[in-house]
Fold this sequence. Notes:
It is a single chain. The chain is mainly α. It has one domain (about 5-175): Four Helix Bundle (Hemerythrin (Met), subunit A), CATH 1.20.120.450. About 55% of the residues lie in helices and about 5% in strands. The protein has helices at about 5-20, 25-30, 40-65, 85-90, 110-130, 150-175; strands at about 140-145, 145-150. It has a two-stranded antiparallel sheet with strand order 1-2. A hairpin with a 3-residue loop joins strand 1 (about 140-145) and strand 2.
Amino acid sequence: MLETASLVKRTAHERAGLIGLVESLSEIQASYKPSPNVWSVNENLEHLALAEIYGVSRIWSAADGVRIGKPVWVGEHTNRGLSIDEIIARTWKPCETAPPGSTPRIGGPMLYWVEQLRVSQLVLDRLESVLVGADLESIIFPHFISGPMDAMQRIDFLRFHIARHRSQIEQMMGSPEFPRAQGDKGT
């Protein structure tokens, strides 16, 4: 099993790749929607920021609960010992729907969401220090689709989630219909 520091570092690397991919896009590009049911770059970034705020706060609450003898979740850890890839393969359908709390609804400029994602990394870095010395398999907060996930699985889920949406954004940006920047001939 990977150490917390390694998982946080992998998440930071994935986040940096996503930010590098999108931060030079124009607002026209970031707002482009290939169809009404597909999220724009802005919406993907907002979703990631909202989902991470929720997920990290839940890990933190679960850690505090275990620390004071009042876990936030008690039950069978049906995903014990599984990697995040194994959990996703067992529990997700090809196209899942985001829960209402992380569905894009606020809007705003793309660079705002990029900065929120940068701040999210600072919070995740701080969470790493909160988890030092804790029994990470006992810090459990269920995912709304996948069920119980412990702190290590939840942190690795952040990396997975960023990578999943980065791939969706790359696919959208690679389509011929994606707006090109001024002077870009779309080679």
